[in-house]
């Protein structure tokens, strides 16, 4: 099995690119969202770590944002609690798809949390800053302060790009993405 890790800036289109591969995708953002909505154990752990913020279940995105903005150390506490569960879910996903030729890992903090293995293929999704900003502003819960906090805990984009095996320039057209993916798959299969 070949594991492909998708890297890039927030809003660069990593999830879109991941889906275009047409192989099983582990989307960490979706899994985190499910944890907040469906996992009472996570709620209890977050409530214990940040009692002033997590008052009711399921956890609303607004509450998470408020907790992150309230205190610098809160984001790290949240990540520590959630990351452990996401790693378990990712391992289950890999086990479930062990007979697949390729799986795609769409995990924002893949390198930061040392989730990738040495032989994984890393692909950097590069987009224009203006396109990224336009897309981010369309998000329902867009908050530049939250985005800045997340960018601050991520490795520099230049380093992620340097560590990548391939770069996909995302101009947000399906045709160009599919062309890039086809070329990458030819090289790795």
Description:
α2 crosses α5 (72-96), α3 (40-49) packs antiparallel against α5 and α4 crosses α5. The chain is an alpha/beta fold. The protein has one domain (2-188): 3-Layer(aba) Sandwich (Rossmann fold). The radius of gyration is 17 Å and the shape is globular. Strands 2-3-1-4-5 form a five-stranded parallel β-sheet, with helices on both faces. The longest helix has 25 residues, at 72-96. It has nine helices and five strands. It has helices at residues 14-20, 28-38, 40-49, 61-70, 72-96, 129-138, 144-153, 157-163, 174-188; strands spanning 2-8, 25-27, 102-106, 121-126, 166-169.
In brief, what are we looking at here?
This protein is α/β, with parallel strands linked by helices and 189 residues long. The chain is 56% helix and 13% strand.
Protein traits:
single chain, 189 residues, Rossmann fold, alpha/beta, 9 helices, 5-stranded parallel sheet
Number of helices: 9
Along the chain, the helix and strand elements come as EHEHHHHEEHHHEH
How is the main sheet built?
5 strands, parallel
CATH class term: Alpha Beta
- Our Rg estimate from Cα atoms comes to 17 Å
CATH second-level architecture: 3-Layer(aba) Sandwich
How far is it from the N-terminal to the C-terminal residue, by CA?
10 Å
Which structural class should the secondary elements be placed in?
A: alpha/beta
């Amino acid at each position: 099995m070949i594991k492909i890790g998708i890297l890039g800036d927030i809003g660069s289109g990593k999830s879109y690119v991941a889906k275009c591969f047409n192989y099983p995708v582990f989307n960490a953002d979706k899994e985190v969202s499910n944890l907040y909505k469906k996992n009472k154990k996570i709620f209890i752990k977050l409530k214990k770590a940040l009692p002033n913020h997590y008052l009711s279940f399921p956890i609303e995105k607004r509450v998470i944002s408020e907790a992150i903005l309230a205190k610098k150390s809160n984001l790290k506490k949240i990540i520590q609690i959630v990351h452990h569960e996401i790693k378990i879910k990712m391992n289950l996903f890999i086990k479930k798809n062990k007979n697949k030729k390729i799986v795609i890992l769409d995990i924002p903090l893949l390198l930061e949390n040392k989730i990738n293995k040495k032989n994984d293929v890393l692909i950097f999704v590069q987009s224009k800053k203006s396109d990224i900003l336009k897309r981010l502003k369309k998000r329902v819960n867009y908050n530049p302060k939250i985005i800045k906090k997340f960018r601050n805990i991520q490795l520099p984009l230049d380093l992620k790009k340097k560590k990548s095996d391939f770069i996909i320039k995302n101009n947000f057209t399906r045709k160009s993405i599919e062309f890039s993916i086809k070329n990458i798959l030819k090289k790795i299969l």
